[in-house]
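Researcher: Hi, I'm a grad student and pretty new to this. My advisor asked me to get structures for two proteins we've been looking at. I'm not sure of the right format, so I'll just paste the first sequence and hope you can take it from there.
Model: That works fine. Here's the first sequence with its structure tokens right after it:
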Amino acid sequence: MKWIEAKVIFESSAPELAADLISMIFYEFGLKGVSLEEPGMNPEEGWGDNAVAQPAHYSVSGFFPAEELPDSRKNDLMEKLSLLEKQNEILSKVLFREMDEEDWAESWKEYFWPEKITDTIVVKPTWREYKSTGRELIIEIDPGMAFGTGTHPTTALCIQMIEKYLKPGDTFLDIGTGSGILMVAAARLGAKQVWGIDNDSIAVKIAEENLVLNKIRKSDFHLTHGNLIDTIDQPFQVITANILSEVILTLLNHVKQVMKEDGILICSGIIEENAQTVITKMQSIGLDVLECREKEKWVAIVACLPKQHLA
């Protein structure tokens, strides 16, 4: 299978925000993840021996199956980037490169390193080494074509909120599970049953592999292919949705159907300027907003369903 890398090299006075805005464009095209480069990037000392050379420019790369990026979609991508440049004073150029699947499968791995998400939780790509202090919870992850290694702020925020709000014995549902990393985190933190749903059948397969890799028993997890909660027929005590704001707003129309009384909903993937819209929608359907946490211009929102709103 052939892949096309679309690499956006850019300059901006606010490079972190620019990288997030460019990433959002790729996500709108249906990509599960992107790779980022920045001048001076370097893994933490002692986290591996295969560090790559420092890049000279900021860039964001998205990877498309070759048959899914005809000239018309390339033009759409260029138009969205051009509009972004005008609105946010970003200078950019796009380089397209065709690559074989084997090259693609290895090319993005060099950018992922172990990351300490909380005081006790470390997410470690399977191909990296990490020396544990002995009291840490290590999550092994190989995102494959689903991406999601825990390094992105939206995923890190979700893991932090799961650690804070999930109680041992809770049931857990991850909507848009991707690589399954949030399911693994919930299971390792004591959830008795973890469920995941994704509209990408490849993601479902990879999530299962990562759960097994982390020694989660098959009897303790359930994965399904579907859109949002379409195939979910039972309520859960903790639910996560690390997806785009626009999709979260759609999800909120029906999410109470799968929430237990006093159930917790953790939503991430929300850029700062969209946070209030999501909060307002949550409140309008009867959810109590418990907490908002921000990291690098991304926001996670935690809400609860009070008992009186179950009817």
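Researcher: Oh nice, that was easy. Here's the second one.
Model: And its structure:
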Amino acid sequence: MTVKKDKTINKENEKTGETVFKDDVIRLSHGDGGIKTNELINELILKYLGNKILNRLEDSAVLKGFSGISDNYKIAFTTDSFVVNPIFFPGGDIGKLSICGTINDLVTTGCIPAALSLSFIIEESFHVSDLKKILSSIKKVLNETGLNVVTGDTKVVEKGSADKIYINTSGLGFIPDNLDISPYNIKPGDAILVNGGIGEHGAAIISNRKNFDFKTNIVSDCSPLLSLVNDIISASGKIHALRDATRGGLASVLVELAKSSGTDFNIYENCIPVKKEVKGVCEFLGLDPLYIANEGKMVVFVDKNDADIVLDVMKKNKYGKDSCIIGEVIEKSRKARKDSGTVTLVTKIGTKRILDLAFAEQLPRIC
């Protein structure tokens, strides 16, 4: 059924000052981390709910002087929902993914994670044996990180009203007073690092969907990066920004950070680690590894003078053995707008390609 745009309503919205959103219905592309997601967030959600904290659009909100607390006291708060398909995949499942994703969003602020929430929306007739597997994988991550789920909720909906199981998580952490890690601190001269091969999560998911069912050895990189980030922060007091490259992949994250910091990045194709199996799947399907989701990759911005120190520490951590320096933040042209930021990929043959947000996700429902 075609949904027609109500021009009368849109005209009324323009008169009353209400936001006019381009689309009449929500599409899959609105949830993929690309251009349509940005439109949904900036042209609709922020128009209604925007404030000085939410408008920063960081993985975790940093709250200072919150509800009467001292101005020197900061907390990090994040929330996320998970609808991955399939719910079980090589290297993890929706349970492990949900806890790792929330922990990783929290630690991008450099905080000490304190507590997590966990809520389930379960479809009627979902197998208890599968729920036990999911709970077991969640427990393993909690045991590794020393964290606890302290609150949650469970709802069951009629068969056909959901796709097996959805999970929502939130996380709370405390940020040391002297720590300020944010995309807004990125500056020319910073080195850009990543802790290993990109695209592994998305490639593992697509390889195990029924309509593809590839025979590969690709395993999702789904991992809790708390110990890695602790090592990074301990190694240098000049960590300017951290971001986990999930939806939209490495390219989308870099583009977002360039724009939010108003700086330009150069990254080098021959320095970006991509495993042979991931590259093979992407070439077969016509996908770009730069835009494939990760669930265990942290992008690090650090002063160039500390880059080698941080790289050495990352390589010693079990989640950073294949860490690399992939680029740097460069001086902007004097003609460039202060609020602009571009990411340039220098290819293996020396040509240059400007990266931008993808119009639509290559792989929907990867997290």
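Researcher: Is there anything I should tell my advisor about the second?
Model: You could mention this: The two ends are 29 Å apart (CA to CA).
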